[in-house]
Specification:
CATH architecture: Alpha-Beta Barrel
Low-confidence stretches: 298-304, 307-317
Largest sheet: 5 strands, mixed
Number of strands: 9
Order of helices and strands: EHEHEEHHEHEHEEHEHHH
CATH topology: TIM Barrel
Radius of gyration: 19 Å
Oligomer: single chain
Number of domains: 1
Length: 317
């Protein structure tokens, strides 16, 4: 007899140091998206009750490959894609191989080709934080394009507010997409804050359930306090990392350290910066959800995809 079936947990949206430079203007020259080592993320996730661990770094699987030999892991990625208007979308892809990473990356400016490849390979595709302002401007049809091709929608993001997550849940219901949860952690403190449950006995059954859309988001939404705490941690980690690099680095590294030190007197203003960011996120989510709800038509809706998809690891000709 095998292990009894139970609700297995996995944080499907978590970053490591491989996610690269910050995307926010000005900060992109000073800090990274995340400073966490992949192994530290793995240990934090397992320590917080995650049965399986994956990384969804921005446009790379380097960190996930570092964990591939550890028990209870699989390779994932958050791909930066572009709608026909040029609007940016973040799409999580799960249980992929190196050749999938290369093929999807090559198609990220052609959504139809991207979704067609993923469907051919039975790769789950999740539209992450659909109502977030952090991906930049959003045209009228961008969300509709993504919802027509995605198989899942992130309805519980551990950094987004409860209101933003509720709007994502409504969009998932309207599009008839499976819902998932992830922490969107950029620091170790937030790993496992939100996650996805699938009734399964092992990794293979979890991934099969994920493909079939038999997913249950769980955990907590974000808040102003959580955002402020994480940005403060990132600022501290940036200073520590740059100080270490400057010891043996060139003039560029030392200049970056000097810039960070120059900003230290302004750290008490961080709560004001995060307050503005948090308020902007709420306004963006409210405005774009209203637009989405107003224009949604039955033709944009679809039944949950991938039911009966090939088992994980099944080769595709």
């Amino acid at each position: 007899m095998g292990d009894a079936e139970r609700l297995m947990r996995c944080d499907l949206h978590v970053h490591s140091r491989y996610s690269g430079a910050a995307t926010v203007p000005v900060l992109r020259h000073l800090t990274r998206e995340c400073y966490s080592e992949p192994r530290a993320v793995y240990e934090a996730a397992r320590g917080r009750g995650m049965d399986l661990v994956t990384l969804s770094d921005h446009d790379t699987i380097a960190g996930a490959l570092e964990l591939e030999a550890l028990p209870g892991t699989f390779v994932s990625e958050e791909v930066t894609c572009f709608a026909p208007s040029g609007g940016e979308l973040h799409l999580g892809v799960f249980d992929i191989r190196e050749r999938d990473h290369e093929a999807l990356r090559a198609r990220r400016r052609d959504l139809e080709a991207f979704f067609a490849y993923a469907a051919e390979r039975s790769i789950p595709v999740c539209l992450n934080h659909p109502f977030s302002a952090l991906t930049g401007r959003r045209e009228h049809d961008d969300l509709a394009h993504a919802l027509r091709g995605a198989t899942h929608l992130e309805t519980l993001n551990g950094m987004m507010s409860a209101g933003s997550n509720e709007r994502a849940r409504a969009a998932a219901r309207g599009a008839r997409l499976a819902s998932v949860g992830g922490s969107d952690a950029h620091t170790l403190a937030s790993v496992g804050r939100a996650f996805t449950c699938v009734r399964a006995r092992d990794r293979g059954e979890f991934l099969a359930g994920l493909r079939a859309g038999l997913t249950i988001p769980a955990g907590r939404s974000g808040s102003y306090a959580r955002l402020t705490a994480d940005i403060t941690r990132l600022a501290a980690e940036a200073c520590w990392d740059q100080a270490w690099r400057a010891r043996s680095g060139d003039g560029t590294e030392k200049a970056r350290l000097a810039a960070l030190v120059a900003l230290l007197p302004f750290t008490p203003l961080l709560p004001l910066v995060t307050a503005f960011t948090y308020a902007d996120e709420q306004l963006f989510a409210w405005r774009h959800f209203r637009r989405h709800a107003r224009v949604q038509t039955p033709s944009t809706r679809r039944r949950p995809p991938m039911i009966g998809a090939a088992a994980p690891g099944t080769p595709t000709p």
